[in-house]
Amino acid sequence: MKKIQMVDLQSQYSKIKDVVNPSIQEILESAAFINGPKVHEFQKNLEDYLGVKHVIPCANGTDALQIAMMGLGLKPGDEVITADFTFAATVEVIALLQLTPVLVDVDPVTFNIDTEAIKKAITHKTKAIVPVHLFGLAANMEEILEVAKAHNLYVIEDNAQGIGANYTYKDGSKVKTGVIGDVASTSFFPSKNLGCYGDGGAIFTNDDDLAHTIRGIVNHGMYKRYHHDVVGVNSRLDSIQAAVLDAKLPHLDEYNRTRRNTARKYNEALKNHPNITVPSGKTECEGICSSCDCHVFHQYTLNLKGIDRDGLVAHLNNNGIPCGVYYPIPLHLQKAYADERYNEEDFAVTNDLVKNVISLPMHTELDDEQIELITTTVLNFINNSK
Ligand SMILES: *Cc1c(COP(=O)(O)O)cnc(C)c1O
Hints:
Layout: H1 9-30, H2 37-50, E1 54-58, H3 61-71, E2 79-83, H4 89-96, E3 100-104, H5 115-121, E4 126-130, H6 141-151, E5 154-158, E6 166-168, E7 174-176, E8 183-187, E9 201-205, H7 208-217, E10 222-224, E11 227-228, H8 239-248, H9 252-270, E12 276-277, E13 300-304, H10 309-318, H11 348-356, E14 357-360, H12 368-384
Parallel strand pairs: 2-3, 2-4, 4-5, 5-8
Antiparallel strand pairs: 1-9, 6-7, 8-9, 10-11, 12-13, 13-14
């Protein structure tokens, strides 16, 4: 059996190297390393795939979030509501821009930001909500948009883990995550569902004016050469990364289907165990489904009950199976983001999840033998530890 990895990028690469290698070679020959035609080509292809008017490539997913917030003109002191249970980048950029992060609890079933908690956290200073499509499952966008509209707030989707996922409105119309709010960010970090071979990211929006503003911000605040109208940043996707992404984009739906298939197999083996809750979200659909929860399984995350999680991690590792704990500490308890305003009782779900979640290997290259070994090793530990 092939060694099980948390993410297996080598095997994926070996299947597409006939396309990737010549495309990278072409960049080397042309020497158009920055802002070359490949970046524009990929941008257009991603716009078509997502059904969004503007994709603005940038250097990474963290920059993408920061630039989205700069583009919206958020000012120091503005409050921005986001989830307590996510990767730190989301809250980091809020704090960096001297905006006030307001962390709120998540839903125990979807692990996504809880709409009731958002409503409770809104004040006259609130300017934006940042839902994260955590682990590849769309947040409850319709409810979030309703709250945002009622309070005149921006919605910035952190789509770093959700690229390719669908969201279906109550009326049946479907969209990709990342084109629902005012603006969205994504990451092309190698292990993301659409990853390059270095750092990369992008901002999406349907708003022409905002897209124009953001195109200047990513390029030192320049709208005309050497005229700097606003304070910007330097954040670019380089041509080599664009070449990799353009080679992988046609495979994204197939990659996400493979992930859903793996999740379905994990679910079948684990879902009936009383101490395990498998992820919510559909695994059957082929790309576009008729209910909103078309999960793209950036992570496959179990919620354990009454099980020694650290013991399970050690048991898996001892059997050559990697696993992850995303995320082990709530953001409101991280030194950098702790704040006296927070009350522990407002974070009951996150406080519980950080102790009980475990993510199993998830990527496009897992075979049935590996999946079977992973699930039987999990079940062996749980059944023997009682
Ligand atoms: C990966 C990730 C980011 C940051 O992306 P980088 O490209 O690593 O900067 C932001 N938010 C979430 C939820 C992520 O998973």
